[in-house]
Amino acid sequence: MQAHTDMATDESADPDTPAFQFTDFSYTYPQGGTGPALEDQPQHPTGGECVLVNGTTGAGKTTFCLAAAGVLCHEYEGRTTGTLSICGRDVRSYTDMGGEIGKQVGGVVFDDADAQLIFTTVEEEVLSGLENRGLQAEDVQTRLEEMLAFTSLTGFRYREPHSLSGGQKQRVALAATLASGTACLILDEATAELDTAATESIIAILARLKEAGRTIIVVEQKPPRALAAIADRVITIEDGRLTRDETAEEFFATYTDETEANGDRVETAGVARKGEPPRVVVQNLVHHYGTTPPPSRESVWISIRGGNSSPSSGGRTAPGRRRSSNTSTAFCALRRGGR
Ligand SMILES: Nc1ncnc2c1ncn2[C@@H]1O[C@H](COP(=O)(O)OP(=O)(O)OP(=O)(O)O)[C@@H](O)[C@H]1O
Ligand SMILES: [Mg+2]
Questions:
Q1: Which are the contacts of 171, defined by CB distance < 8 A and separation ≥ 6?
Q2: How do residues 162-191 score in pLDDT, each as one tens digit?
Q3: What does CATH list as the number for 5-261?
Q4: Protein residues with CB under 6 Å of any ligand 1 atom
Q5: CA distance 86 to 162
């Protein structure tokens, strides 16, 4: 993957200007019965910095992302106090979300890529980001090729986004956001649903963007250790407040991630009764999507007993058989088809 030189210059954030500056800021949702979902966040990531945001469920991480992207102040009702500046400008002085703030912070990449991908091809998704930038037609074409290459999506450009794997979809969501020319990138649990390889491919892209001077905010409740390679700081939010702000070295020195704790598989606490027949048996299943790509020659063999978790990383294969990386998806597709 080779980033165009413009990615390193035109779109990098100013290293001397805080990307986000919250001053006595608080936000309460319209139905926020229990008080503010976000209160003063005294941290000021600058250009080229990568900040990992951590916190338990309901802590306010997504609310923080929405605030930092300008969405809370421009598109949500609710009560805001204090000020927030984005790339040196008060959030309210931006006239619109799309073009103006989009140039600074191109939106948030969420965990559910399906909800974010609305066009019929990968290429159209990326073009939608480029078209907001008022570029000349030939520049649009050049940037499109660069962005597809940068995110390893060139071979998927005519594919329908919803037909891609989870990791590929996240790369499309990332490419579409980057295409808007954003200097800051915000990812909210963007790798939460991905396996180790797909997560690492996203982190490799982030590493290159960081090198190019982008400010990166990565929200992960259970951060993969690979993030230690790019994160500068880790902040922890609890009950809407920032409670810890430490270096990535400090945070990861005492951190154990889920894959380290459990191997690559999360075991269930259920108990299988001895001699009980498997509840689900899949034998020699071959499935392929549509007729254009060649059918997979790999077959799927799964046996699930009471108390077993369903396969989370490719499924079980009979001894001597190659493991199918599409097992889970194929299995769900068949289920949806009612067979
Ligand atoms: N649209 C909304 N209206 C009212 N309250 C909301 C809304 N969205 C979130 N909240 C509340 O704000 C608080 C923070 O929610 P938020 O989604 O930011 O947490 P989070 O840290 O992202 O959690 P998770 O890890 O589960 O995604 C929670 O108490 C939540 O119930
Ligand atoms: Mg969240």
A1: 151, 152, 153, 201, 202, 205
A2: 999 999 999 999 999 888 888 889 999 999
A3: 3.40.50.300
A4: 29, 31-32, 37, 55, 57-63, 221
A5: 33
